[in-house]
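Supplementary Text 2. Reproducibility record for the structural model of the 382-residue chain.

All settings were left at their defaults, and a single model was retained for analysis rather than an ensemble. We include the record here because the model underlies the residue-level annotations in Supplementary Table 4.
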Amino acid sequence: MTPKQNPTYHAPTVGILGGGQLGQMLIQAGIPYGIQFHVLDPDPEASCQPICAHFQTGSFKDADTVFEFGKNLDVVTIEIEHVSVDGLKRLAQHGVKVYPQPEVVALIQDKSLQKQFYAQHGLPTSDFVLVNDQDDLLSKATFPIVYKSAKDGYDGKGVQVLKHADQLPETSVFPGLLEELVDIDKELAVIVARSSTGESTTFPMVEMVFNPAANLVEELISPPHVSQQIQELGAKLAIQLAEKLEIVGLLAVEFFLNKKSNLLINEVAPRPHNSGHHTIKANAVSQFEQHIRAILGLPLGNTKAFGHAAMLNILGEPTENGPAQYSGVNPLLGIEGAFFHLYGKKQVKPYRKMGHVTLLAHSADELQQKIIQTKNLLKAHA
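Retained model, structure tokens:
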């Protein structure tokens, strides 16, 4: 009997909806695979523009634009979930491989549908109730409580802690959902990859530290300061969720760990995620290369961590607005195990993500010292 032959590899053309830093890092990871990347983004100066094979200025929220952009490509993927699902569906019907699949993107675009999906499949999440308007909210709310708009939230936008009945969200953000205000001990994340072949694997769990003013991730720590049992449970839940969604590509799963040591799924993102940037230097395969392997049906890589690691977002200083410049780069690069990554954004804005720093260390104490040192050194300003 003739042995089964491995399929021949053909370097594909891959389209990315969204041209920000996530797309930039996807392209960088895909260059060794010979991939020709096409990018669609409304900003002509997006981070991907200088390094992709073809850049198109246009709206990834417009179905016709998305279809015309991707109809002749081998694969279309996303680096932001706020894209035209109708456009993705048309591409899939046309024969283009679309990963993550349009129906997965549609579900994740709507936080109400996300939460209902967790509940329907027995996945742990905080208690919630759906609301359509302010009257509905007032009749169902027990304050304090968290309100989330169902759609278009991003980096903390569309999320509000309501402490009393006089503090209500604007009507423009309805419909949405009310969530129990969780007594949070830590915020954690696990990135899972699921291939078009059905293979799945997770990256080690990380701990996220949020900037309180901007409500976005400022740093992450790997490994997290939680038990091995919690880490294993997070990986198990991430794989279960990816398999129930049948997603192809990456899924970033954000968790709350409450004061009673219960792990609750908070939100997910169907793409590379801020909680995985450190993997470029800290793991045997990066989240970006893993996403490429997954959507092309290639064997997934080994996600093992090399040691202790941290990622610090380089955020625009709170009062800065203008042409970007950076102080502290030279001394930063003198630190052993410090790696500097800029996203090519020309303008700095308050709390805008301008880049990140990955720090590697041999111990948790050494890592913490490097974190403090880096925060004191590096600033993004105008």
